[in-house]
């Protein structure tokens, strides 16, 4: 490839692309979440994530046994 073609390829690759910005607007919440609802949601989240991994770790020796 000739040098001018290569330099044009590099210039086009390095040129910054313009990205349109999303028009995001914020409004006040329609329904406020109470502290009790937050506690219930966080508890459910932690149980869903940590429950299965805790069960696997508790039964790790069972998995190691070859029967």
From TrEMBL:
State the source organism's domain of life: Eukaryota
Where it sits in the cell: the answer is: Mitochondrion inner membrane
Query: What GO CC annotations are associated with the protein?
Result: mitochondrial inner membrane; respiratory chain complex IV
Q: Where are the transmembrane segments?
A: 39-58
Keyword annotations from UniProtKB, A to Z: Membrane, Mitochondrion, Mitochondrion inner membrane, Transit peptide, Transmembrane, Transmembrane helix
The entry's family comment says: Belongs to the cytochrome c oxidase VIII family.
Q: What is this protein called?
A: Cytochrome c oxidase subunit 8B
Q: Which organism is it from?
A: Astatotilapia calliptera (Eastern happy)
């Amino acid at each position: 490839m000739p040098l001018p073609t290569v330099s044009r390829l590099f210039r086009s690759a390095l040129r910054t692309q313009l990205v349109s910005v999303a028009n995001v607007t914020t409004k006040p919440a329609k329904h406020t979440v109470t502290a009790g609802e937050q506690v219930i949601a966080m508890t459910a989240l932690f149980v869903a994530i940590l429950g299965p991994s805790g069960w696997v770790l508790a039964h790790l020796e069972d998995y190691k046994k070859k029967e």
